[in-house]
Amino acid sequence: MTVLVSTRRRLLAAAALLPLASPALGQARRFQGVRLNVATYQHQFNTYLARYIPEFEEQTGMRVNFNVSGFPVYNQQADLELSTRGSAYDVVNVTFIYAARWINAGWLQDLDTFAKDSRYTPAEWEPGDFIGGAQAPLQDRNGKTFGFAWEGGAMMMGVSRPDLLQRRGLRIPETFDAFMEACAAVHGQDGVAAFAVDRLHHWHWPPFLMGFGGNVFRQVPDNLTPTLATPEAIRAADYYAKLLKDYGPRGGLSYTEDQARQALVNGQAVFNIHSHTWQLPMFAEGSRVKDTARIAFMPRGPAGDFPGANCQGIGIPIGARNKEAGWEFIKWMLSKELLSRIVKEHGHPSVCRASVIASEAYRERFTINGQDIGAMYRAVLDKPAGSNYMAYRTVPVFPQVGDKINRAIERIASGQANAATAMQQAQAEAIGDLRRAGVAVDG
Amino acid sequence: MARARTSDSLAWVGIALVLVVTLAPFLWLVMMAFKPAEDIAAWPPRLFFTPTLEHFATLLRSDFMRSFGNSLVTSTVATVAAMVLGVPAAYVLARMERRAARRLGFLILLSRMVPPIAFAVPFFLAYRYTGLLDTLAGLALVYLTFSLSLVVWMMRPFFAAVPPALEEAASIDGAGPWYAFLRVVLPLALPGVAATAILCFLYAWNDFFFALVLTRTEARTAPVAVVGFLNYEGWEWGKIAAGGTLVMAPVLIFSIAVRRFLVHGLTAGAVKG
Known about the structure:
The structure holds 2 protein chains of 2 kinds.
Chain A: H1 2-17, H2 23-29, E1 35-41, H3 44-60, E2 63-69, H4 71-83, E3 91-94, H5 99-104, H6 112-115, H7 132-135, E4 148-159, H8 162-167, H9 176-186, E5 193-195, H10 201-204, H11 206-211, E6 217-219, E7 223-226, H12 231-247, H13 257-265, E8 269-275, H14 276-279, E9 294-297, E10 309-315, H15 323-333, H16 336-346, H17 354-357, H18 360-366, E11 367-368, E12 371-372, H19 373-382, H20 398-413, H21 419-436
Parallel strand pairs in A: 1-2, 1-3, 5-8
Antiparallel strand pairs in A: 3-10, 4-8, 4-9, 4-10, 6-7, 11-12
Chain B: H1 2-34, H2 37-40, H3 54-61, H4 64-95, H5 98-113, H6 117-130, H7 136-160, H8 164-172, H9 177-188, H10 190-206, H11 209-214, H12 222-227, E1 230-231, E2 234-235, H13 237-257, H14 259-271
Antiparallel strand pairs in B: 1-2
Helix pairs in contact in B: 1-13, 3-13, 4-7, 4-10, 5-7, 7-10, 8-9, 10-13, 10-14
């Protein structure tokens, strides 16, 4: 009897104390038993993330179904799922090139409803800590947030053989003119080519186009008339094609990303422009140039400096069944703590939280050959924040126009057409494609 | 005599050229599957290399084999089901009154007249509501719906070519319609059955589009899994080639095994009905 009374008292006391128990514990366990469907694509970050998911499941009691597909497969499936406002996924990757389409169509949940509400998100999670340039494509015109960036791509210039420049008394080029001069000076020295990039010209070329004062479209997103045959575009195409034709390796016009990267790592090509994560292998074990290679900012043109920058975000479909649980996952996945651990334990470079990039652990890991790569990465990623000059890439019609850019550059670089002819043809074809797709274009 | 020999030689050279042109991509794929990773992107391409099974070993350790199994299951189930349902239907159509058979046959063919993409969203929505999305049963059902009309239309001329007198004779000996069909008519149409089954299997095995739209991870098939090796951070050429080689293998083996039936069946079907 005494035992029973004592037990009852203890139970009552415990019940009285329940409201005082840790709110975090209550918050987390309210998702006990939820099965969360997360869909994304294969990426090194997601491979790392998958290793930490059991911790999240342990903390929250959720079960995470982490669907990882190849990039094209994921995009097709997510596009269909979102366009039918499906509920199969609770959390999705917000692919950069689809971001505007998905956001403007209303297929994603406004995440400010969670991120800016203290009931869901503690102040120390700090949504403002995400780099502005990376967040810009994940917001609508009114500044509402539909995704948070987990991966940033910042275009930089890899320089595998700075010694060849020094031998000619040159420094790493900072302008288009200096870049062309440097390519001319080093090409053929020690049997190396000056410039190697893959065939993704619609990613590599626009910074040159903008640097010469041009743009891909007249006014994104209101006027999507392509502007590929302007004097600036023709000049930029001529410039870029000359780099490929005169200073590229043999067979370089058909290079894949792997080949371009390999050429850089083996010191067979001096310059490469791409996202910095593609250039970091220069500093990895097995690289022939790891002790001397440099990473530099993209050279700037007469009209300014417009290095490519992109991001991949994570968001919640509008039709998701478990939105609050989905937010709990996003909050955990992009918390400062977890991102710091991923940087520290795996050396992942392309996180998008300013505080993590500025952290001692990050700096220590990514200060290479005396260069603070993190600071450079952040500076490039943040560049589009004001003007959002990368918006051209997130409009739904960009893939068609990008394809025309690729073909035009190949025609010029292979000598099939001069820059003016090729770009006028690209312009005519792009306009034809957009008209057939029902897009309003000028003229 | 000399002219005939020259003509023969030219024909052989022509055949060899056509073979080289048509088989070169396959040879290239198979070679790449056995190349060490560092040789795949080598320029100029290396024709001689030390073969390796590393890409196949990686595939065996990955989820790819599950996708491969999914492909086998859905293709086999869809083919068997289409044959079980379609062959008797074709027989009945072959024996029906001509005008009614033609009308019904046309209705069956309608499903082949619409491009598959037109069915994608309706199938997707229907499957989402019925829970068939990302299931092997759902995928096999789609393949069945498309293969059924093919079976009916391909098998009908084979049955039409079998004289009804044979069934009448069996009937006089006491055989019922099913017995006559199974024991008398069907064995005579076996080359057609083999050819039709191969085509059904190939349709399901090679399908990428419906597998992409209607599956996610559980029922993902091999063709979709191969595309999954086109990663954001670079294409995994070794895995793509090894996966492609594995995807080709069953069809190739099956086709070689039944090539006698296949040629006979296809040509017979082409000139009758």
